[in-house]
Write a structure and sequence with these properties.
Layout (H helix, E strand, L loop, with lengths): L1 E6 L2 E4 L4 E9 L8 E7 L6 E7 L4 E4 L7 E5 L5 E6 L8 E8 L17 E2 L3 E6 L1
Parallel strand pairs: 2-11
Antiparallel strand pairs: 1-3, 3-8, 4-5, 4-9, 5-6, 7-8, 9-10, 9-11
Length: 130
């Protein structure tokens, strides 16, 4: 059994920062050669991909909306992937989801096809106010 769980959501002021964590647990040896992604969805809007991390080479990819503001990385705990969000604005208010798969790099470079991701967390709410 493999599980993914997000944490760290909450409220923040515009211009502030939050750090979300995605913890993978279960019957896995490691998350090497895995792909991790962060998605978000605001009410009435489609779910959008934000950031990718391929652990085999530590390669990352960001969409234009968050590039330069958000950082995806592995935390000190190997099975924990963080999303550091800086310079938050009201447009960042959404439910944030962590997703992962182990299909390899070919499905972890510039794609956010939701069907590629085998494991999903339940989401954590982020609310940004002025």
């Amino acid at each position: 059994q493999v599980q993914v769980a997000e944490s760290g959501g909450g409220s923040a002021q515009a211009g502030g920062s939050l750090r979300l964590a995605c913890v993978t647990s279960g019957t896995i040896e490691s998350v090497y050669d895995w792909c991790f992604a962060w998605f978000r969805q605001a009410p009435g809007k489609p779910r959008e991909g934000l950031a990718l991390l391929y652990t085999g080479s530590n390669r990352t990819y960001y969409t234009d909306d968050v590039k330069g503001r958000f950082t995806i990385s592995q935390a000190n705990a190997e099975n924990t992937v963080d999303l550091r969000m800086d310079n938050l604005n009201a447009g960042d208010t959404a439910m944030y989801y962590c997703a992962a798969h182990r299909r390899g790099f070919a499905f972890c470079y510039t794609t956010f096809d939701q069907s590629d991701f085998t494991f999903w967390g339940q989401g954590t709410q982020v609310t940004v106010s002025s």
